[in-house]
Amino acid sequence: VIGMWSDRTRTRIGRRYPYILAAAPVAAVAFALIPVAGNLIDASTNGSVAENSGVFVFFIIAAGLMLLAMAVLRTPVIALMPDLIPSPLRSKANGVINLMGGVGGIIAALGLARLFDTNPIIPFLIGSVVMIVAIVMLFVSVREPRVSELPHPESDQEEMARGLRGFRAVPAAYRRSLTFLLLAIFCWFVGYNAIETFFSSYAVTTLGVSAGTAGTLFSVALGTFILFAVPAGYLGTRYGRKPTITAGLVIFAVLLVVAAFVPNTTVIVIVLGVGGAAWALVNINSLPMVVDTTDDERLLGTYTGLYYFASMSAAIAGPVLNGVIIDLSGSNY
To answer: What does the DSSP assignment read for 205-216?
Structure first.
């Protein structure tokens, strides 16, 4: 919905920035308020969540506002990439975006998380301040493409109607390809979420390692994904996005077969390392492939939103579906 709305928005500061600038402060403040609930519980006489239902509701509201604001923020921010970058360079650009996201995650895990033991509020406050600073830097240094040439939605009934139709706004010539591409994205994210969600349980029950070691093992895949993010973009540009994604999926599937028949910790570490690189081939080239199914530059926000609809739906449905399979198999991870 936000992607469609931003496509139809015309303001002096652009199409995407009104949503970015409105959502970022809400997300930052709500994020900073999340640990306040914990402090309120600790300060109470019994420290029980059940007996401090008001505090728990406060926590849920803060977390809910933060997630909602981030959902509003995400599509317009990511849509800036195809807005600014021509089609042949989008895989490389998406690789850089994922590299920076991974670096940010590492800094948060190794730096901010350690401050939690000092004071639980500190990492949240720092995260909130960093977000505001980043949005200000983005707004000051990155200008949206000029939309003065694009018709104003109120003066162009056809564009307005297309924006309101959402998926039906996609030209018929591209609709079939886009439908299958979104279904494919949904399916491979269901598969990836199965591994990400249940890997710790698999490692503990099947490999016999501790829960802490299980988390460390999976970080191997995250590390190689980050390292291979930019090269994956270059490969997608050089050999084509569809062949690159297909190669990544084939490698990933073969690795899972190996892992299934050789549940050895050393083998699994190798599988995770190569698997992270294979997943980069898939993930980095997915969004550019979706937005390239249109030649209408006015609908890039809609297409970005459709990509996140497919991937986020898989993040919701995947763990549930795979949890059912695990239960039906007698907890055979």
So the answer is: III---HHHHHH
Tokens linked to 46: 């019994």
Helix (H, G, I), strand (E, B) or coil at 145: coil
Residue-wise pLDDT for 136-178, tens only, equals: 999 999 888 776 655 454 444 555 455 445 566 666 777 888 8
Of residues 310, 226, 318, 326, the one with CA closest to residue 276: 226
Count Cβ neighbours within 10 Å for each residue of 27-43 and write b for 16 or more, e otherwise: bbebbbbbbbbbeebee
Place of tokens 């050789």: 262
Which token pair is 314?
């898989």
- C-alpha distances in Å from residue 172, one per residue of 176, 213, 287: 7, 50, 20
Backbone angles phi, psi at 305, to 5 degrees: -65, -40
CB burial of 264-276 (b: ≥16 within 10 Å; e: otherwise) equals eeeebeebbbbbb
**Is the whole-model pTM more than 0.90?**
no
CA 126 from chain centre, in angstroms, equals 21
* Pair of tokens at residue 153: 């939605």
**The token pair that represents 264 in the structure block:** 């050895």
Q: Which of 226, 204, 182 is nearest to 314 (CA)?
A: 182
Cβ pair 10, 150 in contact under 8 A:
yes
Please tell me the distance from the alpha carbon of residue 95 to that of residue 76, in angstroms, as a whole number: 18
